[in-house]
Amino acid sequence: MALTAEMKREMYWWMLLARRLDERAWVLHRQGKIAFHISGIGHEAAQVGAGFAIRRGYDWVAPYYRDLALMLLLGFTPRDFVLGLMGKREDPNSGGRQMPNHWSLRAANVVSLSAPVATQCVHAAGIGLAIKMKKRDQVVLTALGEGSTSQGEWYEAVNWAAIHKLPVIFLVQNNKYAISERTEKQMAVKSAADKACGLGLPGISVDGTDVFAVYEAVANAVAEARAGNGATLIETVAYRITPHSSDDDDRSYRSHEEVEAYKKCDPLQVVQSRLVADGILEEAVIAEFEQRAKEMVDEAVRYAESAPYPDALEAAYPVYAEEVRHG
Amino acid sequence: MAEMTLIEAIRQAMDEELARDADVFIVGEDVGARGGVFRATQGLIEKYGAERVFDSPLAELSIVGVGIGAALYGMRPVCEIQFADFIYPAFNQIVSEAAKMCYRSNGAWTVPMVIRAPYGGGIGGGLYHSQSVEAFFTHVPGLKVVIPSNPYDAKGLLKSAIRDPNPVLFLEPKKGYRLIRGEVPEEEYLVPLGPANVSRPGSDVSVFAYGMMHYYALQAAEMVASENIAVEVVDLRTLYPVDKETILQSVRKTGKALIVHEDNLTGGYGAEVAAIIASEAFTDLDAPVRRLCGPDVPGVPFSPPMQEWFLPNAEKIAEAIRQLDRF
To answer: Can you tell me the ipTM of this complex?
Structure first.
């Protein structure tokens, strides 16, 4: 489907909202109001491009921890996010049990994520298998970093998807670093897309700062998967503009100059310049979006700060499904 | 009533559950045309087709991981690990994914899944086809661990496990597959997960065992009956969560407890049973709690005399009962 001007503006909006929310999380951390943040800055184009290419709420998603923009697109609110950052009871991921960014959103078919990387890939393969068994036309989008393609879980998941032509899209968000390790310490090939080819999947590498290129690549992969033609791996190449997490000091392994150079291809700036040049985005609209994002983020922080923590004894449940109390 | 072997009862349980619920499927290595290396799934592919009796790649991690994904989607996978010895690649998926899913998502996601695995020695399997793995998993909240000792229980427990909304590790004493025979009703029945079973009432010594060791414990009880020792045998059968009450009731009656397992002694399941008795029935004890277990060597050796040395059997159990009775 060709993107309309309205859709392009909307894509920009979600990227902007994710960015401003993410930036606020860094501020909250510096203020000592949250204990930890792991950032998606630099990943917004990959996530919003992919999120627009699926049927949100119908297709299934096994995300990874940097997927803030994708989660917002799937129905997660800024409030939801800050509640998670602060470990408050209303955190929709886990009721304050998990660290931030360990997403879960059942209403949008987003399955719960753990911390050991690539574990979600095999779940995506299993969901794909179930969809195929049930003869439905849903697809599964799973996201991961390039470091995760070193894990056995990833190989086994891709292998399953290839053998059984499962409706899975592996979205490898290559940001050039796995904490401190550059891509060449993760793979001897140029791209994670090349690894997929070796296992029998189409592997495509796209510019991860170009939201429209990502959208097109993922939309094609989704169409193939929905038609029963199996899985695709899409590598989006961008740059992790922030340190790995709030606990990381990236000055020990990369230069200030390198980071500054890559900031020139910040995906948010890339899309903004392009939409302005194409006459789709006016300065007034940008200002309005900025204002709206600020208000939403402010409101989310206010709400989450005054929201209650869970009672300590809630930590005892629910270990087994029988203990789940709905409603 | 039909008399059948342990493995026939296991097969019948899967057969009936496949017929009852279209969401149930079998996945594992060689479970299809081969019918499993122990023939547990023999004939099922002919009856239910290759889409429901599903040969996996030779990769245990993803047998379980794909099963988790399918379960999240709403299926009821029955995953076969060919030998319990090969389960470790899937350890992360069992312990960190399946078992934690309900808790970490605050009940939004559950994993209704069974993992079947033949375990235990006495079949000349050496270090890597004889292992008892239960202690690694009876430490894990969120998981249920079941070990049947006879055909009636095996069928009823496996059917319950398949219907259970939680992940269940179902360990089968492979030496007993064709050795242990018993009556199984024609009509539908379930054996609930949870309660232990007093399989032989007695008043002098309590023997706590499961799986193959329970079979030998019954033989040992018979051997010492002529010596005027009335042994109570308790089949623990659901190891986790543990049925404390049945254990305590028995030891309060007899005042003497012997725990038998073929897994290594140190940190084995028997240590937990001993701790329960020591904490909650101390004043009822007439003798120290005793454990008869596999020795603390890395595995069951292959050569017959060494294998014999490693494993408890009816004679060794009878001797341990006599010693405890004399105390």
So the answer is: 0.97
